[in-house]
Here is the input.
Amino acid sequence: MEKVLIADEVAQECLQVLRANEVPFDQRTKLDEKQLAGLVPGYAGLIVRSSVKVTRPVIEAGKELKIIGRAGVGVDNIDVKAATERGIKVINSPAGNTTSAAEHTFGLLLASARNVVAGSVSLMKGEWKRSKFTGVELEGKTLGIVGLGRIGSKIAGYAKAFGMRVIAHDPFVKESAVATLIALDELLRTSDFITLHVALTDKTRNMIGERELKMMKKSAVLVNVARGGVVNEEALAGAVRDGVIAGAAVDVFATEPPSPENPLLHVEKIIVTPHLGASTHDAAVRVAVDVAEKMVEFFKTGKARDSVN
Here is the structure.
């Protein structure tokens, strides 16, 4: 059986699956690009999460590399084009993080609606300013979902349980049982809360900028647990600071970790979290097992399930 390099911290269950199927592996973590490129020759498989960058030099150094497994959903840390040119399959675990990401998104939505973070910080300072943190209810409000895939659809279910009206925009979805499909501009104009669930591509980069933010209600809140580059950070910080929209919650950034000077970190009505969307023990185990099983299957049958290329 061909050998696998695990270049990131993954759940132990991943290693157990490989051992059970007699797939030899080594685990080496905290490698920079040069170190990874120097280590990857001799391995047929490579498993990473989100922190390791699988760049063109790394891929070109992997002379025996046949498959790269991303224990998670997004593959923007992998040079998929370079892998495709070399005939290397790139697989991911598209369903593994769904519940964790959806729950975190809805948690941020609730925290924004009720000013939970700002109220907590204020109380810890010894203040008691209840009227300052008066929030709004979700029941009867309109939630606009941009991207109606697995996560967006789950969010729609949560929202309906809270009595919200759910609308959505997704150019790849023609009909839906969980949301009313409308054009993006109309969604921006009519939603009280907006959540984003799209991959980062050339088409979605900065899809929410100054123009789009100005279309939103002054009372609207934007929640992004998708990818940082989808929203123009300068524009969002300015929109919340200047009262163009009421607030935002952001879990992802164009550059991670963000610079201390990132404007999103310095606006009171923006809640920020350090890319926690998939950070649950449940999701970590689920994606680790999933990608290990798919890699084992690939070595045994040549079939690459959930290949992105």
About this structure: The chain has eleven helices and twelve strands. The first strand starts at residue 4 and ends at 6. The CA atoms of residues 5 and 46 lie 5 Å apart. The mean pLDDT is 96.
